[in-house]
Design goal:
The protein has 383 residues and is of the alpha/beta class. It has 14 helices and 13 strands. It has 2 domains: 237 residues, Aspartate Aminotransferase, domain 2; 128 residues, Aspartate Aminotransferase, domain 1 (Alpha-Beta Complex). Helix 1 runs antiparallel to helix 9, helix 2 packs parallel to helix 9 and helix 3 packs across helix 4. Bound molecules: pyridoxal-5'-phosphate (PLP).
Length: 383
Amino acid sequence: MAKPSIPYGKQVIDHDDIAAVDEALRSAWLTTGPRVGEFERAFAEFCGAAEGVAVNSGTAALHAAMRALKIGAGDEVIVPAITFAASSNAVVYEGGTPVFADIETDTLLIDPADVEAKITPRTKAIVAVDYGGQPADYDALRALAAKRGIKIVSDACHAPGATYKGRQVGTIADLSAFSFHPVKHLTTCEGGMILTEDAGMAQHMRRFRNHGIDSDHRSREKTGTFAYDMVEIGYNYRLPDIQCALGISQLKHLPQWLVRRQAIAARYDQMFASLPFARPLVTHPDRTNAYHLYVIRLDLSALKIDRRRAFDHLRASGIGANVHYAPVYHHSFYRERFGYQIGLCPRAEAVYQEILTLPMFPTITDAEMDYVVGTVSELRNLS
Ligand SMILES: Cc1ncc(COP(=O)(O)O)c(C=O)c1O
């Protein structure tokens, strides 16, 4: 039998998606046209939020959120140690200082107790990462933040459609950032969005994504004017209409893809129950998990190999295993710029040695999942 090739994540594109992009390509607007607002309204409505601001990546969404909160030099923003670097890079873009909080070992979510220990008079915001698709403990974070005037940014790039105590991700934090990269729940190739209830911040972020200019090309066409003012320094973070067309079409599938991701996770959980050395992350009963990632922790004391060898075995077997993520402050940029030392967040460092991300995408088959679990079970025989 040929060796399979099972990635850890991948997009699903159908004829409707292609037709939607084709139509946009033939229209008058390739960018800054009507599909931008349409996608913003559709995604905001899906999540139950008042305002959506489309940008060209999840990273740009986080950057816009930092600008909307006026993060700047001297401000500290607390970020979980285990996340994609963009969660804290956005703080650095605006001149702020990321302060890393440790995580809960069984969920990899930011630990509110360590957040509290890291709060100082300079703390201006907390970035709550909904790791893997499970919402962070927003009530606990809110209780710490509200009395001190600290804002909460949800890095919800893993979690569209997830819920926390019955509330939809995208409506819980002051600002929520999403990514539409191909491995995510829905894709616009590259793309992102910020959701908020605050119309003033939404307006600010729309300006920020357009160089800091107070109007865009389409609105000037409508009013028949050429004049505009650049009122602050911004960026070109605009999401083109053809990508918004893809996003609008993809969004129609999201409810069924979420159900499918949850069914895949339930099936994996059931199979891993008989492999005690491979422990899936835990989902709290007061949350639903959107399962961007399916992550197991290896009990290294029960194995004769380390995670690297386990990863190599899966890769050699055609399984696109991955690791999400090394503690951000381990990166040389963070050590050199901010002087962060190994040892800063001991639980993050310990669990990082144990984690493996396994394939999770809506079109994975039962046979592929059986093969993945079967290959993981071989780890106990390796030395
Ligand atoms: C937690 C998290 N935050 C931010 C991002 C950045 O999103 P993008 O790749 O769309 O810039 C990602 C993407 O991988 C992510 O996983």
